[in-house]
Write a structure and sequence with these properties.
A four-stranded mixed beta sheet has the order 1-4-3-2, with helices on one face. The protein has a four-stranded mixed beta sheet with strand order 5-8-7-6, with helices on one face. β7 and β8 form a beta hairpin. It starts with 6 loop residues before the first strand and ends in a 6-residue tail after the last strand. The chain has two domains: 65 residues, Roll (2,3-Dihydroxybiphenyl 1,2-Dioxygenase, domain 1); 54 residues, Signal recognition particle alu RNA binding heterodimer, srp9/1 (2-Layer Sandwich), CATH 3.30.720. The chain is built from two helices and eight strands; from the N terminus they run βαββββαβββ. By secondary structure, the chain is of the alpha/beta class. Helices cover 18% and strands 28% of the residues.
């Protein structure tokens, strides 16, 4: 059996604040919290015979003293499921995201940064 992608760890300055942002983006909820660490995940049922597919990976936010200094080598892509890309970008900007340029040029996705400057993309056509 192969490994499963179950969790993405993100270093940050404010785990609680960044977790709140990503909970709002992904419709996730806080699953666990300890000093300097917040884990969020889908409110959906765990994978199993009563679940038609895998549960999306959890995100773990861990407090670190270092700030972000360069472009992310790994980033999250999100897909709007109940609205068009422009409306989703507007919603995410209202949550605290901002536009950012990573040299993407003229592409179909929109590159944003979360409140701690982690880049992520809002795709236009792929709906999960």
């Amino acid at each position: 059996m192969a490994s499963k992608f179950t969790e993405l760890a993100i270093d940050c300055a404010d785990p609680e604040g960044l977790a709140r942002f990503w909970c709002a983006v992904l419709d996730y909820e806080v699953r666990d919290q300890d000093e300097g660490i917040v884990i969020i995940g889908s409110p959906a049922l765990p994978e199993g015979k009563d679940r038609p597919g895998p549960v999306p990976p959890m995100l773990t936010f861990a407090k670190v003293p270092d700030g972000k200094t360069v472009k992310n080598r790994l980033h999250i892509d999100v897909n709007p499921t109940d609205r068009e890309q422009d409306a989703e970008v507007t919603r995410l900007l209202a949550l605290g995201a901002r536009h950012t340029d990573v040299g993407q040029g003229d592409v179909s996705w929109v590159v944003l940064a979360d409140p701690e400057d982690n880049e992520f993309c809002v795709l236009s056509a792929r709906h999960p």
